[in-house]
Write a structure and sequence with these properties.
about 425 residues; mainly alpha; MetI-like fold; two-stranded antiparallel sheet; extended; transmembrane helix; cell membrane; membrane; transport
Length: about 425
């Protein structure tokens, strides 16, 4: 009996394999489309952000200029004074740094930790160059300046031996380490950053509240007016985007000054006899920043309100709810996502403002961005500037997460009640 031939399977891969390959190809095409955007974000946001965070803990100056000292002082327990080899290492490093003209780099870093260290290090390097120690380095350095026999001097060097440090982050919070290495508060006359952070968040929260109070009715009108009137009102909302930030801020200086339009109008109607001081103080900061940031509150609110069906309010009215009750219990809970998005956007933008508070605010109205700019451009203390930026980033992130959780909980409870 002849055996029947077995039917051959289908040529090529199975349908399951072909589907898997097609799905993989589709994913690669999608990734290729968003790849340029991811690269752009990486090079313009993620990498600079990582660089800022690293600069807030980077401590390279002393190890680079005084490498022998940084290695030798690591064995010192911080009690008493270092041993003779540490003094000898410092003397060798200072003579070499003087020849290479790099002493100022380490002197600048150590002067952050202890006032007067720059003068001490530079003068010691010059005198060692002229009179290198023949015998003990301890006696030679002590003869040049008695500060080399003080524990605080060596504690400053030990704290800056790198490669990483918490010095800048602690300083950004008005903290420091004492001679024993414990974290303590900075002296009262040097504690300024916590007050500036508090002022920054207070101004940011105040501007956010003003934008919400003034922007909510505008967004409601935009979402409920006929299309022709709504489009006209939207043009006025977007008009500020077409004007330079500097121009808008300077315009408020003209409007709010003692002889400006606002004071003249108030005097003309008889509300005031003397001009009000509305510029170069907190009032001017609130007014100018609220005007600048108002569109960032209105647009998220409008996008959410536009998606709320009007039938909900009519249904609430048909069930006997007064307009105010229907608004609070039916309409308002549905706008919470827009309130959360607009508030976060305005708050985050507000706490990072620099030009507006600098132009319309007084000396007591400057925000943390002014200090960051000062340490970046004027004193070139990039470590402290990065630490202030890192603290601001962490605080903003934590507040954003907490605020988002609260809004989400409020929306959930509001939905259950309604």
């Amino acid at each position: 009996m002849t055996a029947l031939p077995v039917a051959a399977g289908p040529a090529g891969p199975s349908l399951k394999v072909r589907l898997r390959r097609a799905e993989r190809a589709r994913q690669w095409r999608a990734f290729a489309l968003v790849g340029p955007l991811l690269l752009f974000l990486a090079f313009t946001f993620l990498i600079p952000l990582a660089g800022m965070l690293w600069r807030s803990v980077d401590d390279w100056e002393v190890p680079q200029v005084l490498p022998r000292t940084a290695a030798a002082i690591g064995g010192w327990d911080g009690a008493g004074l270092p041993a003779e080899p540490v003094y000898a290492a410092l003397a060798e490093d200072l003579m070499q740094a003087y020849r290479e003209r790099s002493t100022a780099v380490a002197a600048k870093r150590l002067n952050y930790a202890q006032q007067g260290f720059r003068t001490l290090l530079m003068s010691t390097a010059r005198q060692l160059k002229a009179m290198p120690p023949d015998g003990g380095a301890r006696d030679a350095l002590a003869a040049i300046d008695p500060a080399w026999t003080e524990r605080s001097t060596w504690a400053a060097i030990r704290g800056a031996r790198g490669p990483a440090t918490d010095f800048y982050l602690l300083a950004a919070l008005d903290l420091r380490r004492d001679l024993d290495g414990a974290v303590v508060s900075a002296p009262e006359d040097q504690s300024i950053y916590r007050d500036v952070f508090l002022r920054t968040f207070t101004i940011g929260a105040g501007v956010t509240a003003l934008c919400l109070i003034l922007g909510f009715p505008v967004a409601y009108l935009l979402a409920n007016l006929p299309a022709r009137q709504s489009n006209l009102l939207m043009i006025f909302v977007l008009l500020s985007f077409w004007t330079s930030l500097l121009v808008r801020t300077c315009a408020w200086i003209v409007l709010l000054q003692s002889n400006g339009i606002v004071n003249d109008a108030l005097r003309w109607v008889g509300l005031i006899d003397e001009p009000l001081r509305m510029i170069y103080n907190r009032v001017g900061v609130y007014v100018a920043m609220t005007h600048v940031l108002m569109p960032f509150m209105i647009l998220p609110l409008y996008s959410v309100m536009k998606g709320i069906p009007p039938a909900y309010m009519r249904a609430a009215a048909s069930l006997g709810a007064p307009p105010a009750v229907a608004f609070v219990r039916v309409y308002l809970p549905q706008t919470l996502p827009g309130i959360a998005a607009g508030s976060l956007l305005v708050f985050i933008l507000g706490i990072g403002y620099y030009i507006t508070p600098a132009l319309v605010g007084g000396a007591g109205d400057q925000m943390i961005s002014s200090l960051i700019a000062f340490y970046t451009t004027d004193t070139v203390n990039w470590g402290l500037a990065s630490a202030l930026g890192a603290v601001l980033l962490v605080a903003t992130s934590v507040l954003g997460v907490v605020y988002g959780r609260l809004v989400q909980a409020g929306a959930t409870s509001g939905g259950l009640k309604s």
